[in-house]
């Protein structure tokens, strides 16, 4: 019983920070109108790279930040800037932002913004770094939680097509604009978190 409670103390904060439900809505907005093959590729990229980023920072995040002199507030601001740009584009266009530099939307969307900064954002990275400073049991539970959460995200994304078909293209455009405002809100919250950590708020 105690082990289950200890696991939930690790799993629940990570679940809240990664937020598979919000990620699902953004995934549906960004992949609206894409075929099943493209959605599958984006799902694979988001889950694979998002998981790799979090596991990487869980294992060596502290050393990386110390070596490059990067602070947690700096990560918060960087992630916030990326999300703010994405949110503005979503509100303006009511559709997925166009890819840049001749790259395909699949390669863009799966990694940025889904894998990072949404799934493996500054909040999640900061949390796993903190959790990995605990006991051996906490370290193991953190790694297991990351794997379980990205499995949940994969399942959510896999079944998103059915929800997309249920709503239709016009409704998805409206949802995209609404969620664009929320994404911009997430971005501003990242900025506020950074200011709080710096003692400026």
UniProtKB/TrEMBL annotation:
It is a multi-pass membrane protein. Pfam families: MarC. InterPro entries: Multi_antbiot-R_MarC. The chain crosses the membrane at residues 12-30, 42-60, 109-130, 136-159, 171-192. It is found in: Cell membrane. Keywords: Cell membrane, Membrane, Transmembrane, Transmembrane helix. GO terms for cellular component: plasma membrane. Its main location: membrane. Belongs to the UPF0056 (MarC) family. NCBIfam families: NAAT family transporter. This is UPF0056 membrane protein. It comes from Oxyplasma meridianum. The lineage of its organism: Archaea, Methanobacteriati, Thermoplasmatota, Thermoplasmata, Thermoplasmatales.
């Amino acid at each position: 019983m105690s082990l289950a409670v200890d696991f939930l103390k690790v799993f629940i904060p990570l679940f809240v920070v990664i937020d598979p439900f919000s990620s699902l809505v953004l995934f549906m907005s960004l992949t609206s109108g894409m075929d099943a093959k493209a959605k599958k590729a984006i799902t694979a990229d988001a889950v694979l790279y998002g998981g790799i980023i979090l596991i990487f920072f869980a294992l060596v995040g502290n050393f990386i930040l110390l070596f490059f002199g990067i602070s947690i507030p700096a990560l918060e601001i960087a992630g916030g800037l990326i999300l703010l740009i994405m949110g503005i584009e979503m509100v303006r266009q009511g559709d997925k932002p166009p890819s840049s530099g001749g790259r395909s939307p699949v390669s863009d969307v799966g990694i940025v913004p889904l894998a990072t900064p949404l799934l493996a954002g500054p909040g999640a990275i900061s949390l796993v770094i903190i959790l990995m400073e605990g006991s051996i049991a906490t370290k193991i539970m953190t790694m297991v939680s990351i794997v379980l959460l990205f499995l949940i995200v994969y399942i959510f994304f896999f079944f998103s097509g059915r929800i997309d078909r249920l709503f239709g293209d016009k409704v998805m455009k409206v949802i995209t604009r609404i969620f664009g405002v929320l994404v911009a809100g997430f971005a501003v919250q990242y900025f506020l978190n950074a200011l709080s950590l710096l003692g400026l708020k």
